[in-house]
């Protein structure tokens, strides 16, 4: 089963608290935060900010304590790179979603769960098809957010002397063996196609013996060829965990490529006035509802300002440039920008280790106009 479905998110989104609802997203990505104490430090920073913002609210204090206890008690980190936690005391709500993808650490207190980021994670992450072929067997797996959602196998009977092919076999027997290999490749491609038709996937990767690869590629349905993103190196008989890891590596590479492509588009767009880069310009574009896609470097956080009257976000205070009212300081204006973007139904892309975005000011936006 996938970690969270769109239905589950919708259900969470309809929850209304009589007491405040505390939502906490926590980045626990082992590539950035190696030790449990790194995670606790990440959590402490977020909780400190949340406590300062919600001074004196007993229900929020209890929510934050519950979140702190859950994280500090330890959780399975082997497949978790992000946590989404939702807590409310009235009516009672405690919901934890472990995500196999990193998220942007933040705490939001509202009358409803802040599900925007969860939604964008589910929308943006691809379903991955993995086809493993050896001489006799074809195995097909589909993963979604790191979880197995489909597994099918096909086995072809082979003659006992199959491996002697190419040494002494000639004539009819050899062509018979070739015909079997051809049939097997067809069956493998057919298996992938039937799984695609049944459950669908956005990306496709495969592992097969060298000699089978070109033939197999020719046999794939064009839909699958379009989704193909290179081979993985995993044994056709590998364990499910090894296959999952190999697929996750390809998925991470595809994701980094996608981010790099977006940052490239941002660079071009800034040149033609269809993009904004750096905090002040990006916040201005967000306030004008011009943002299509918001790009943020993972881990970027900085203090800034929000206008209590017209909600404008700004890097510099204290007078609002739009309505002239006095703005109040916020501990992390990037967090507010992400929340605002999600509320405006913008696409939000958190970019990991993208030096070009870092150089461009760690935040930027592709604009609608
Ligand atoms: Zn204002």
Give an account of the 3D structure.
The protein has 369 residues and is an alpha+beta fold. It has eleven helices and 16 strands. The protein has a five-stranded mixed β-sheet with strand order 7-6-5-8-9, with helices on both faces. Strands 3-2-1-4 form a four-stranded antiparallel β-sheet, covered by helices on one side. A four-stranded mixed β-sheet has the order 10-16-11-15, with helices on both faces. A hairpin with a 5-residue loop joins β12 and β13 (313-314). The chain is elongated, with a radius of gyration of 25 Å. The protein starts with 5 loop residues before the first helix and ends with a strand. Bound molecules: zinc ion. Residues 307, 309-310, 312, 320, 322-323, 325 line the site of zinc ion.
Descriptive terms for the model:
369 residues; alpha+beta; Nucleotidyltransferase, domain 5; 60s Ribosomal Protein L30, Chain: A; 3 domains; five-stranded mixed sheet; binds zinc ion
Low-confidence stretches: none
Q: What fold name goes in the CATH topology slot of the largest domain?
A: Translation, Eukaryotic Peptide Chain Release Factor Subunit 1, Chain A
Question: Helical region count?
Answer: 11
> What about the largest sheet?
5 strands, mixed
Looking across the biggest beta sheet, what order are the strands in? 7-6-5-8-9
Return the CATH architecture of the largest domain: 2-Layer Sandwich
């Amino acid at each position: 089963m996938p970690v969270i479905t769109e239905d589950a998110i919708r259900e969470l989104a309809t929850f209304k608290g009589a007491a405040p609802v505390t939502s906490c997203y926590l980045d626990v990505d082992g590539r950035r935060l190696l030790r449990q104490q790194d995670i606790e430090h990440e959590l402490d920073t977020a909780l400190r900010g949340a406590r300062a913002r919600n001074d004196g609210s007993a229900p929020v204090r209890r929510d934050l304590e519950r979140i702190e206890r859950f994280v500090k008690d330890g959780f399975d980190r082997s497949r978790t790179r992000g946590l989404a936690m939702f807590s409310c005391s009235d009516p009672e709500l405690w919901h934890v979603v472990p995500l196999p993808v990193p998220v942007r650490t933040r705490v939001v207190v509202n009358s409803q769960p802040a599900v925007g980021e969860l939604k964008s994670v589910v929308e943006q992450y691809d379903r991955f098809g993995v086809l493993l072929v050896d001489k006799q067997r074809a195995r097909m797996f589909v993963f979604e957010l790191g979880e197995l959602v489909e597994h099918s196998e096909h086995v072809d009977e082979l003659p006992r002397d199959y491996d002697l092919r190419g040494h002494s076999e000639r004539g009819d027997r050899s062509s018979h063996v070739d015909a079997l290999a051809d049939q097997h490749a067809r069956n493998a491609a057919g298996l992938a196609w039937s799984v695609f038709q049944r459950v669908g996937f956005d990306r496709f990767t495969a592992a097969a013996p060298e000699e089978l690869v070109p033939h197999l590629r020719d046999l794939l349905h064009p839909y699958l060829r379009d989704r193909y993103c290179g081979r993985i190196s995993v044994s056709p008989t590998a364990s499910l965990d090894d296959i999952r890891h190999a697929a996750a590596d390809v998925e991470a590479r595809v994701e980094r490529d996608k981010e790099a492509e977006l940052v490239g588009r941002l660079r071009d767009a800034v040149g033609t006035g269809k993009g904004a880069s750096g905090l002040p310009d990006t916040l201005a574009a967000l306030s004008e509802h011009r943002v299509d896609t918001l790009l943020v470097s993972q881990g970027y956080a900085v203090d800034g300002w929000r206008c209590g009257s017209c909600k404008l976000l700004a890097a510099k205070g204290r007078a609002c440039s739009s309505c002239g009212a006095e703005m109040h300081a916020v501990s992390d204006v990037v967090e507010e920008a992400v929340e605002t973007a999600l509320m405006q139904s913008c696409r939000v892309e958190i970019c990991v280790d993208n030096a070009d975005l870092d150089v461009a000011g760690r935040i930027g936006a592709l604009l609608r106009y």
